Amino acid sequence: MKGLILSGGKGTRLRPITHTAAKQLVPVANKPILFYAIEAMVEAGIRDIGIIVGDTHLEVREAVGDGSAWGARVAYIQQEAPLGLAHAVKIAEDFMAGDDFVMYLGDNLIRGGLQPFVRQFDEDKPDAMILLAHVANPRQFGVAELGEDGRVVRLEEKPPEPRSDLALVGVYLFTRRIFDAVHAIKPSPRGELEITDAIQYLIDHQHRVMPHVIKGWWKDTGKLSDMLEANRIMLDDLETSIEGRLEGTSQVQGRVAIAPGAVLVDTVVRGPAVIGPGARLEQTFVGPYTSIGPDVAITGSEIEHSIVLAGSRITNLEGRITDSLLGKDVEICRSDRTPRAHRLMIGDHGRVELP
Fold this sequence. Notes:
By secondary structure, this protein is an alpha/beta fold. It is 20% helix and 34% strand. The strands form seven sheets. It has a seven-stranded mixed sheet, sandwiched between helices. Strands 14-17-20-23-26-29-31 form a seven-stranded parallel sheet.
């Protein structure tokens, strides 16, 4: 079995962060989201992985390389524009060479990995398997309707009147029959080849499509609130590891990972939290569910439930930063106005002066 990871798209819901970075490389618990997908593939025994890339292909190629860091072989498949998930499948046909494969959306996270689904697919041998999850807002997803016998009856992409609350999770397992479907369907009104239409084609032509309703958590990290929630979930599994230096009155409370080269001076970190390599924190409070990236410098400030990317600087703030995502090389400093609480989403190389 091979793997297909989608790492194209424009990430419009995470702008301005994605004006300068691939959304799949934004870190959760200090690890790019895309890396979780690669790890899940390898853990499931999948070593041949194709990655669909778009405008940010150079950044993705630099981050992932040839896949040898994971014991995998990675090939890159260029998509000229975000023309739909089924289009991504279509252009991967030569890479798959008739093999079964798992398609994983590179900005999704699923607890428990892929092994149970790959094993079930191998044992039951359907033509396709779709993962489903109950959601509160099905209008925002592809939605599946199941019959009384549990079979998939109908799929719709972002329906105005959903027939169920079962959303398609960003993992699909296919045989080569899916290529007949993606060649047969036409673009939707929004100009994309929809994977829901391709799977519906399989259903309409009497091919077996197996649903699997997942029990654990699943996150589509397409917007700020989902990124922060995914960060919280991943940090809940954190194990304490103190490899950096604690100086002065610094204290670590709860589950905290401090990478080599990080230095904390007169700073309190209350976990779960992770501090990246080369970070320097002085006279600072870091609260729960915070990920501080590599080479970040924070002085005289407070932050919690936030993600700070590499190279950013936060200096002498009055009031606590919370529920925020700060891009690379951001600079935040204090002005002389009355202090207030801050809620921020700042792109790479930005500078903000706060009261």
